[in-house]
Design goal:
60s Ribosomal Protein L30, Chain: A; 11 strands; tRNA_m1G_MTases_N (chains A, B); 271 residues; 36% helix; homodimer; six-stranded parallel β-sheet; 10 helices
Chain lengths: 271, 271
């Protein structure tokens, strides 16, 4: 039977609200995800929140009822509350019907099976949470094995990243690693490291990708360091006809990933 | 000789700060753009701000000096200020060195030369300013003739859209039109209308695009209305292997646009 919280001063509300800050997420090992679509994606991927906040008037919704039942069966707590509090938890004027508090999870390089997928995404010093979430969403769409975050990246458990991922945070494994450790792991088995670069004549459509392909995208403003580029098996560029000579990092990653996917679909034997 | 403003209570500061709200932008016919990169892009595209705010300690930067000189030569005003005020104008903790206040500009369908480009982007009820800016940036990169916004879209002059466009707002013409007017204009000349859809078996890589190609992307959450899809010459889908069955709207637009561009580069005769 769900308990009810309607007072903003409730200590749990305060604690959950704090999870919008990285420091509190690290301390608690918890993060926030909101919205029926994302929480249903999570549930279907085997992840249930420890706390599930839901608006009183959404409790009749079938998916909300399923979530409540599953959360309670798994030992979590479902908490009925009011739109105003949901709004305060997520920092949005139009709150979602549900907000979940999940235990953070992490994958290590050693836990990845590189042969389980043709495409892997690697991002270096990614700074924008929207880009991170969007790249996860693309990763889900192209069937990527995972997203490997190199160096100081934005927190994949930030509310903005979770939001932009539309649930892909729960379906695409994320690993955080240092460059050296990643490179050692990569070179211990098969894998083509393909770097996106402006300093090459190799067009991304003319290159041949070999599975498993690891697509490396550099920092939004600076691209990747020279020694990272030098470590790649292949550098390719996406043509840009305009004046700005730059694409959004998540867009460039997607254009590349879809080219690799198209090659795999046309010639699965290289997979 | 630039005047100096260091008091937050200055009425001009208040007025400029208000431009972060759409209502004030419409009233004043002005909008904000920030950062040396974006303002330089604007200058090179022939657009100078009416007011240019710059941080005192950036006045020695060559690009800032060029901007100040050009703004003053064009009858605009360059205003020296402090980082705290720049921060308040843009709402960011780490302010850019320059903030510009530009006159809004608009293009009409009738002013577009459809034969001037192979690719045109059309977005319908686009709601996210980051997506709008990112689509403009992609439009710049693929050499799109312009972005046509159909129906109730987010304001292209919002600070977030301008930011995400990285200056492409100044290089890619933007038109706002109603669906009926757009369709009448489109059908009055050559043009293939290609809609991105989940309800088709046509793979985007197998389709043949004819110039000028108009790529129509629907609303982020709902896609496009059935009658819009019915009006398309061609519906194509991007394969999605994952669980979420969705791509970010700006990503989907870019994947499509780069396929059209690749076909044009491989076979310019259809252009």
């Amino acid at each position: 039977m769900p308990r009810e919280i309607t007072a903003y001063s409730n200590p749990l509300i305060k604690r959950v609200r704090n999870l919008r800050e990285k420091r509190h997420r690290r301390e608690e090992g918890l993060f926030l995800a909101e919205g029926l679509r994302i929480l249903t994606e999570a549930r279907e991927s085997g992840r249930l929140p420890e706390y599930l906040f839901f608006a009183r008037d959404s409790a009749d919704h079938k998916l909300v009822r399923t979530l409540i039942a599953d959360v309670e069966a798994a030992g979590g707590e479902a908490i009925e509350t009011v739109p105003d509090i949901l709004s305060k938890l997520s920092g949005k004027d139009n709150p979602q019907a549900v907000v979940g508090v999940f235990a953070e999870f992490a994958t290590s390089l050693d836990a990845l099976d590189r042969n389980a997928a043709d495409i892997w995404l690697v991002a270096e010093r990614l700074r924008d949470p929207g880009n991170l979430g969007t790249i996860l969403r693309t990763g889900d769409a192209v069937g990527a094995g995972g997203l490997i975050l190199i160096g100081e990246c934005v927190d994949p458990f930030s509310l903005e990243a979770v939001r932009a991922s539309m649930g892909a945070l729960f379906t695409v494994p994320v690993v955080q690693a240092e460059w050296g450790a990643f490179l050692r792991w990569l070179r211990a088995g098969p894998g083509q490291l393909v770097g996106l670069s402006l300093d090459t004549d190799s067009d991304y459509r003319s290159a041949t990708y070999v599975s498993p392909t690891f697509l490396l995208t550099g920092n939004e403003a600076q691209g990747m360091p020279a020694d990272y580029a030098a470590a790649c098996d292949l550098l390719v560029k996406i043509p840009m006809l305009g004046k700005a000579d730059s694409l959004n990092a998540a867009v460039a990653t997607a254009v590349m990933a879809y080219e690799v996917l198209a090659q795999r679909r046309a010639d699965p034997s290289r997979g």
